[in-house]
């Protein structure tokens, strides 16, 4: 855990302490479990986004992709009679296909990530609405062996999405911070040119980041749709790509690429959900929700960059003090 | 003002700019010493010298970017110890840099008046496009430009773009225009146009300092030539003394500082063969050359001759548009850099900081990057193995750093270059291409890099060294291929090595008759 992550953790604890003093319901098991549930689901999609941001890219189609796979998955298992493991597999295949298309458009055809994924945002949302004729796809009180438990159950009171996030988080931590692939991701994100001059196939690395992002997006979408049990294609997942981006940025990822940690991204999600909870518990009008979130992200990022600037300035001043005055600088 | 200047031009006027005793030193290098020059209105001064002779230092001092350590700069009789950027501007000194600073999404007039646009529309402060174009037109006419103020810069040729830069200089009422290697990237037909422009500036009483590698252009254009060599003034030639041969003699006349490092063993089999390769920059030219095991092949030539493009093509960075390579007799065209690396072909790129290194990465991780799979078990990177290799390389190459986990950004240029080399030496090199390997590196580190290169060659590796530094090419290479506008214009064996021969081939001329073959 690096210094930035530690700072974020301290902030989370401080905010939590303040909220629980004002409203002790914050610490009730039911509130904590609810928050953990949301952290789990949003966390999965934030981890996916983090991989794309690591390459210096951005994935804006996340929310729409959730809506599309949400309606498809729910419709498949509720109305089409497709066994859920098969439906899940199909959704994962779709994720790989979409991720590959995005990645290849960006690396091969040199389109900008923002544009490619913005078009994705529009296209998948449109397809989702078209598929259901703009009506919701819902599970009408049906039950699914294992799926219900895996998606919405609790283990010793801990909601399954949170457990999934912990498992995926550990895997992704190893992948990003310990594996060859992770090292290549850092290298490509920091300086794609230098990575290519070191014999790295940078295209494949970037494409794979978009695939990973879409896979985690689909998994998160399935958790969300089992949680809400009804997927309205026009509203489901709206803004979720922005939550994911915000969490990653709060967690120390740079949109320029090559910087960030998995722990940071998860802590970023925790902080965002804590803020949501804070708005509810402190009686702040829920219409202010976004404003609070935006304000805190801005302050967080400001504090971070200002602190960095302060530290480097102090280093320079220190260096100047330690070296003796040059003889050739008399006053004018 | 310009019309009166034109009338007085032919008379030998008093110099308005006088430099004397200028000295500038950097840690470890004296860039310029005892430099003196006077510029009179309407004078064209040629400034020649090899790379690193002190030309750009002189320019920066005149531009107010660098302050000299000693000496005075007298402008219109007022002595200054150093100029500021605005002093330089007020004195009427304007620069046209080798890399042009134009916005090719704007038209010619907008480029000329960028930041100084005539305004209209009252408080709206809109750009008065019509007036701007009207103001630009006479400037272009003075230069004899065949394009309009409304032409987008994107549609102009390189020489025309230089005219725009010169027009920009004229629009600030410049008295002295400094042209930094204006012709190095121009085809010959365009070059004569530029020389005409210089002549018309001269006729108007505007002085020109013309920095060039192309000596016959200097011969045509200059009233006086100042030859720089290793930061010293090697000589000044007046109009009737300006001869190609004399300039070359002044540029070269010194002992070679680079120890000619001869190979101990005779070179072996051909390692890498380049056969009829066409690059994207010069698709109409073919490159043929070969390098043998155990030899250092120098590639000389001017900047822009297509040398870096060749290096990138061999390393699989850029595609080729014809021909093929052969490694140890086996034909191949690399699909990407990973392919080249797998074959044992490595590149030390020209842009050390941008392409050679990940500056924020620790040294150890830079070294292990191309060879990560050998530093892993079960797909996870083993730091222990990375550190071990990095330590080995640090000792072998003498990388001066206490800790291999230090970020590469903190190292000096020479040590950074050693880290780039270390990445490849930790693997099994068959061919190493070094593109300007010692640019911006101090003398001590240079010598170490030459030694390393020679010991690599002696161990059977084939080396290709691209360099614009004549001394280096001559001192280090076993053979020299000289490139000119996308092709190999000549191949020199050791007895033919001379700066004159390289220069002639680099500017596309044949070798002189009676050269020892």
List keywords for this structure.
heterodimer, A: 332 residues, mainly alpha, two-stranded antiparallel ribbon, B: 517 residues, alpha/beta, Rossmann fold, 4 domains, six-stranded mixed beta sheet, 18 helices, disordered N terminus
Number of domains of chain B: 4
Shape of chain A: globular
Estimated share of beta-strand residues of chain B: 15-25%
Mean pLDDT of chain A: 91
CATH architecture of the largest domain in chain B: 3-Layer(aba) Sandwich
Looking at CATH, the homologous superfamily of the largest domain in chain B is P-loop containing nucleotide triphosphate hydrolases
Distance between the termini of chain B: 58 Å
Given helix and strand content, the structural type of chain B is alpha/beta
**Low-confidence spans of chain A: pLDDT under 50, at least 5 residues?**
325-332
Main sheet summary of chain B:
6 strands, mixed
Structure write-up:
The complex is a heterodimer of chains A (332) and B (517). Chain A is mainly alpha-helical. Chain A has a domain at 40-263. Chain A has helices spanning 3-22, 29-54, 62-78, 84-107, 113-131, 147-152, 160-178, 180-190, 192-196, 202-228, 240-250, 262-281, 289-322; strands spanning 137-138, 154-155, 158-159, 230-231. The longest helix of chain A has 34 residues, at 289-322. Chain B has four domains: 1-92 and 174-186 and 205-254, Rossmann fold; 102-172, no CATH class; 270-344 and 430-512, 3-Layer(aba) Sandwich (Rossmann fold); 353-427, no CATH class. Helix content of chain B is 33%, strand content 24%. In chain B, helix 6 (158-171) packs parallel to helix 7. The radius of gyration of chain B is 25 Å and the shape is globular. Chain B starts with a helix and ends in an 11-residue tail after the last helix.
């Amino acid at each position: 855990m690096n210094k930035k992550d530690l700072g974020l953790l301290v902030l989370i604890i401080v905010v939590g302490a303040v909220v629980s003093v004002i409203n002790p319901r914050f610490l009730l098991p039911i509130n904590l479990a609810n928050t953990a549930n949301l952290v789990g689901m949003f966390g999965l999609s934030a981890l996916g986004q983090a991989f794309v941001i690591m390459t210096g890219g951005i994935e804006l189609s996340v929310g729409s992709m959730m809506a599309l796979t949400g309606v498809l998955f729910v419709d498949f298992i509720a109305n089409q009679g497709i066994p859920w493991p098969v439906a899940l597999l199909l959704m994962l295949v779709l994720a790989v296909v979409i991720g590959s298309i995005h990645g290849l458009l960006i690396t091969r055809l040199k389109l900008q990530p923002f544009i490619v994924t913005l078009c994705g945002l529009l296209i998948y949302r449109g397809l989702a609405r078209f598929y259901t004729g703009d009506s919701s796809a819902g599970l009408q009180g049906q039950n699914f062996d294992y799926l219900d438990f895996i998606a919405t159950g609790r283990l010793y009171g801990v909601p399954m999405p949170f457990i999934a996030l912990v498992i995926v988080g550990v895997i992704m931590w190893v992948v990003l911070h310990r594996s060859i692939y992770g090292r290549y991701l850092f290298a490509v994100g920091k300086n794609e040119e230098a990575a290519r001059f070191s014999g790295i196939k940078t295209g494949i690395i970037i494409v794979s980041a978009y695939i990973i992002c879409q896979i985690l997006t689909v998994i998160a979408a399935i958790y969300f749709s089992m949680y809400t049990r009804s997927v309205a294609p026009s509203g489901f997942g709206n803004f979720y790509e922005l939550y994911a981006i915000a969490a990653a940025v709060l967690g120390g990822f740079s949109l320029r690429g090559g910087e960030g940690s998995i722990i940071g991204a998860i802590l970023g999600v925790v902080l965002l959900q804590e803020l949501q909870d804070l708005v509810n518990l402190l009686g702040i009008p829920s219409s202010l929700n976004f404003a609070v979130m935006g304000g805190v992200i801005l302050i967080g990022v400001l504090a971070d960059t200002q602190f960095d600037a302060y530290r480097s300035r102090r280093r320079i001043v220190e260096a100047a003090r330690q070296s003796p005055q040059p003889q050739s600088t008399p006053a004018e | 003002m310009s019309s009166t200047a034109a009338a007085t031009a032919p008379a030998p006027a008093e110099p308005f700019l006088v430099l004397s005793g200028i000295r500038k030193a950097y840690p470890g290098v004296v860039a310029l010493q005892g430099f003196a020059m006077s510029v009179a209105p309407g004078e064209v001064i040629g400034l020649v010298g090899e790379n690193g002779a002190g030309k750009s230092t002189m320019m920066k001092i005149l531009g107010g970017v660098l302050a000299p350590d000693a000496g005075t700069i007298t402008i219109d009789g007022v002595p200054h110890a150093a100029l500021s950027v605005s002093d330089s501007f007020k004195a009427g000194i304007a620069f046209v840099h080798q890399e042009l600073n134009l916005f090719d999404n704007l038209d010619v007039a907008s480029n000329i008046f960028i930041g100084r646009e005539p305004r209209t529309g009252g408080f709206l402060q809109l750009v008065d496009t019509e007036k701007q174009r009207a103001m630009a037109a006479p400037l272009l006419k003075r230069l004899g430009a065949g394009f309009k103020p409304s032409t987008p810069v994107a549609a102009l040729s390189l020489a025309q773009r230089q005219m725009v830069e010169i027009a920009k200089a004229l629009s600030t009422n410049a008295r002295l225009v400094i042209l930094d290697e204006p012709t190095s990237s121009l085809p010959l037909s365009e070059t004569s146009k530029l020389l005409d422009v210089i002549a018309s500036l001269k006729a108007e009483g505007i002085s020109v300092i013309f920095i060039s590698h192309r000596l016959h252009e200097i011969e045509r254009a200059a009233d006086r030539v100042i030859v720089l060599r290793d930061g010293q003034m090697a000589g000044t030639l007046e109009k009737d003394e300006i001869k190609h041969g004399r300039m070359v003699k002044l540029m070269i006349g010194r002992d070679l500082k680079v120890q000619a490092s001869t190979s101990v063993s005779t070179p072996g089999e051909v390692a890498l063969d380049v056969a009829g390769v066409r690059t994207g920059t010069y698709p109409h030219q073919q490159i043929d050359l070969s390098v043998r095991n155990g030899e250092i092949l120098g590639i000389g030539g001017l900047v822009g001759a297509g040398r870096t493009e060749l290096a990138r093509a061999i390393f699989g960075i850029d595609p080729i548009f014809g021909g093929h390579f052969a490694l140890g007799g086996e034909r191949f065209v690399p699909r990407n850099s990973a392919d080249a690396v797998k074959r044992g072909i490595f590149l030390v790129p020209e842009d050390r900081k941008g392409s050679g290194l990940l500056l924020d990465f620790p040294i150890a991780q830079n070294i292990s990057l191309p060879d990560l799979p050998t530093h892993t078990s079960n797909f996870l990177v083993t730091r222990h193995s990375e550190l071990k290799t990095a330590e080995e390389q640090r000792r072998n190459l003498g990388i001066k750093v206490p800790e291999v986990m230090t970020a590469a950004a903190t190292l000096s240029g020479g040590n950074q270059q050693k880290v780039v080399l270390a990445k490849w030496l930790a693997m099994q090199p068959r061919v190493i291409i070094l593109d300007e390997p010692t640019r911006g590196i101090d003398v001590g580190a240079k010598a170490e890099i030459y030694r390393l290169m020679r010991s690599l060659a002696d161990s059977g590796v084939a080396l290709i060294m691209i360099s614009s530094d004549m001394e280096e090419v001559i001192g280090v290479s076993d053979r020299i291929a000289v490139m000119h506008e996308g092709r190999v214009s000549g191949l020199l064996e050791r007895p033919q090595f001379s700066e004159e021969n390289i220069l002639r081939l680099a500017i596309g001329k044949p070798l002189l008759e009676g050269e020892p073959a």
